[in-house]
Amino acid sequence: MQAIVFCAPDMPLPHPFYEERPFALFPVMNRPILVHMLEWLADAGVTDLVLVPDHLAFELRSEIGSGERFGLHVQFVSGSSLGDVLLKLAGSLEEQFCVFSHLMIGALPLKELCAEVPEAANIRRFDCDGGPVCLSREAVNRYDFSSVHPEQLVQFVEEQGGTCQSVSLETSPCVFRRLRDVWAANVRALQGEFPDLVVRGTESAEGVRMGLGARVHTAAQLETPVFVGSHSVLAREVSAGPDAVLGAGCMVEHGAELSSCVILDGSYIGPNVTVRNALVSGNVLVSFPQETVTVVPDPFVLGGTGRVSKKRHIFSSFCALLGILLFSPFFLLMGVLHALGLRRFFVRDLVGEELPPQLDGKRVLRDVRRSFFQSRIPVLRELPGLFDVLRGRLEIVGIEPLEREQAEMLHTQWAKARFTAPAGLLHPWHAFAPRPLEDVEKRVMECHYAATRSVREDLKVVLRSPRHLFI
């Protein structure tokens, strides 16, 4: 039996993942997706396999080789469409063959699908979304597949007047279209949904599988099901599970909480960090179902900013409340002027810091609604922002919220550094600048602040700012 497998065409991946490895080598239960797939293809009766890599074909060749260890004859063919691949295989196509538009795991009865050669106008498939399609060589001669994406094969044949015969399935396989499918497949495999899938490690207790040399502190808690890869270390008071999969060589510091997550090989999870519904590889974290991507420059601080952020939020709220109490006479005056129609409160829509990017890599800036009072006196104009701090729209100290058009112009590498800090009511130059500054000077100070920010530095800005606000 012959099969053609497209290895994740058009798969959206974060840039660090895309450079690191082909999608086919992402692990499910500590083994690459493609390895699991080749094992069950060989068991299903496939002997001749054609792999169409999406990128980094050299890494795939190094991992799979000629396929002898799987009992398969594997060849690699490049092509952007189904027609390109079929054209290159024209002389070696069997009378019937299977086309996989995506990688998948879960044993399928391919012999039932290919029990007989379909007529030239017809194809056969399983009644599952994204499953393999059985084609005949006559169909290749009948239809022009030159611009057909493998995922559109069924739709194309039906549009050409052909029919698609469906073969029923008792269980549904896991089809890999996006990165979240890797996360979901690991969780499903851990729950025992793929009985034919080979899982490494030994079962130390019911629902707990441990790899060779894995170490778990006696004060750590494992909630089943959980998988700990070879030579991984779980420190004291770590809570792992349910549905936590750790690859080989991972280190989890004390107090960390892991659930419904996949930690890929060699990753580090800092102390008191919560990782839930996420996939982690090195210094990259992808959370689901939103599919937001967080990239940490230093992999040894992944997630370790949660406590600092909480302290900063408490500090900002306290300063805002204190400011409202101290300036309450001014708020009373502003309220009277607003009621008389002499002056007005107004709101501007601005943008602040950069949000975690989506898988498409697009830059997203957080929308900030900033409150002002109509006045020429700086302190009166800025005071309504204290209520924005209480609402969580702003920090007490941070970068200056800008108009969207102005912010999008700051796309150079040095200027983009400012967007790692949140938008604030007070800005770094309020503490140190005795005169009005040019925009470039402000942006430079913001970049320095973003790289060195701390609660202590914020306190200095808060204490020194009042004298400049009255100028």
Automatic annotation (TrEMBL):
Record-annotated Bacterial sugar transferase domain positions: 380-468
InterPro entries listed in its UniProt record: Bact_transf, Mannose-1P_guanyltransferase, Nucleotide-diphossugar_trans
TM helices/strands, residue ranges: 314-340
SUPFAM superfamilies listed in its UniProt record: Nucleotide-diphospho-sugar transferases
Keywords, comma-separated and alphabetical: Membrane, Transmembrane, Transmembrane helix
Keyword Transmembrane: yes
Cited Pfam families: Bac_transf (PF02397)
Keyword Transmembrane helix: yes
Protein name: NDP-sugar pyrophosphorylase, includes eIF-2Bgamma, eIF-2Bepsilon, and LPS biosynthesis proteins
Lineage per the UniProt record: Bacteria, Pseudomonadati, Thermodesulfobacteriota, Desulfovibrionia, Desulfovibrionales
